[in-house]
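Reopening this ticket.

The earlier resolution said the output was attached, but the attachment link was broken on my side. Pasting everything inline this time so it's all in one place.
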Amino acid sequence: MAPVAYFFLPDTPDRARFLTEEEKVGEASLREFIDADALKLIAKARGVRQVGGVKRVGGIVWKEVGLALLDLKCWFTAGLTAPPFFVSFLVTIFSTWVADKTQQRGYTIMVLTTVGGIGYILLATVTSIGVRYFGVFLAASGIFPSIANILPWVTNNQGSDTRRGTAIVLLNLIGQCGPLLGTNSFPTNESPRYVKGMAISAAFTFFTGFLALGLRCLLAWENRKLDKVHGSNMNRVVTQLDGGGQESEVGEENYGPTFRVRARK
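Inline output:
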């Protein structure tokens, strides 16, 4: 899509092919103050309203870039956004390590989604700035690490490369539908708290934990069925028919007798 975007994505609103001429006309309230040729677009008109001059609309002024980098407000703002995501990064590393060690990927996802859901509840119900900021930590520490645990769990439970690839495609196909809901759940008229959007996020986060519980139960049931057909495979020990009876702690692909879905991992 990169070549398509290069040729068809407009550099500026005034070059957008999908805008009509009427949409490219500046606001009438600003025409008496600004030359008509300078005010061609609604987007530029809004920019003029914000910064107070035509020359500052559009383009990059490198001197302003330097001044922005020296402005403490920019650094304080960046500092407020960085800690929640840094904590989320640490939780992601730790939770995936714990899930691998304990072979309890499902329970790990349940705990993470519970933490994230609580964070969204705080954001939806509390007005205190400090508590809401703490809620951001909880939400970020629940959502992103849970994704990191869901991805390997999906591939672990498919018995062939083809099925694993198909599962990833299906996961991304459904997952990318999220923005369709998300972009419509935070209307500007509900700022700054966005109670509805936070409540919807909390509900879907808890629902993810519920799905993790359901999937774990389903996988455990499927393993019991495989045990009845092929015998118990608790230690995943395979007797190699061509190896003189030697034993090896390996699994078998393509849904063979020793394949088991990872109810726990």
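Reporter confirms the inline version is readable. The CA atoms of residues 19 and 125 lie 40 Å apart. Residues 26-31, 235-251 have pLDDT under 50 and may be disordered.
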